[in-house]
User: Which sequence fits this backbone?
């Protein structure tokens, strides 16, 4: 191989490596959130976290129903 071929090969490898580092931050954030959720589920507080999530959903439903009733009584 001549110098030009080595240079082209080196440039191609460098470009692939550079493009590999251009991943989306959203993917990393989603992965980090999933890792946190998995760690919480595996901890002693896993069941409690699920219970708190369900309670928050019920609270949200109650707040929505209250807003509907408030709008209906105006």
Assistant:
């Amino acid at each position: 191989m001549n110098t030009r071929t080595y240079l082209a090969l080196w440039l191609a490898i460098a470009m692939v490596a550079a493009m590999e580092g251009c991943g989306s931050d959203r993917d990393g954030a989603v992965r980090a959130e999933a890792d946190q959720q998995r760690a919480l589920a595996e901890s002693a507080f896993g069941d409690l976290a699920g219970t708190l999530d369900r309670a928050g959903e019920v609270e949200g439903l109650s707040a929505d129903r209250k807003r509907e009733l408030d709008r209906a009584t105006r």
About this structure: The first helix runs from residue 3 to 20. The two ends are 84 Å apart (CA to CA).
